[in-house]
């Protein structure tokens, strides 16, 4: 389904909305999808499986839209001779932040748990 979306739907979406608006809309729609996951614990059986499958598919489609949109914006902003270097730097930084973010969030969460009754920035 993601391949079909990338081949057929994304091209139309990008031509209609443009890379900036499609990236913005995909980013905004990702927030309620991710926020809905905790409420899916009230479901069980086939309804839970179906809800998880649909939410994961929508989340993946929105992620494809965001990544493709930002790649198009970057490629349009960089001259032809520098696109390889720009894409390499962008991919490297994206991988770096994907590896550092969970550790940073864990440290922040642990720090917040120790400061439940602090006057400034409590847990």
Automatic annotation (TrEMBL):
Keyword Membrane belongs to the record: yes
Transmembrane spans: 50-69, 89-112
Name of this protein: Major facilitator superfamily (MFS) profile domain-containing protein
Keywords assigned by UniProt, alphabetized: Membrane, Transmembrane, Transmembrane helix, Transport
Membrane topology: Multi-pass membrane protein
One Gene Ontology cellular component annotation held by this UniProt entry: membrane
Origin: domain of life: Eukaryota
Protein's cellular compartments: Membrane
Gene3D superfamilies linked to this entry: MFS general substrate transporter like domains
């Amino acid at each position: 389904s993601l391949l079909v979306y990338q081949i057929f739907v994304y091209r139309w979406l990008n031509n209609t909305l443009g890379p900036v608006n499609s990236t913005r809309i995909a980013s905004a729609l990702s927030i309620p999808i991710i926020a809905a996951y905790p409420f899916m614990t009230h479901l069980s059986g086939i309804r839970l499986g179906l809800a998880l499958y649909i939410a994961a598919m929508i989340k993946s489609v929105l992620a494809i839209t965001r990544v493709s949109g930002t790649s198009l914006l970057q490629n349009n902003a960089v001259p032809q001779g520098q696109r390889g270097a720009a894409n390499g730097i962008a991919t490297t930084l994206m991988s770096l932040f994907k590896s550092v973010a969970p550790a940073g969030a864990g440290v922040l969460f642990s720090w917040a748990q120790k400061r439940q009754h602090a006057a400034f920035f409590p847990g």
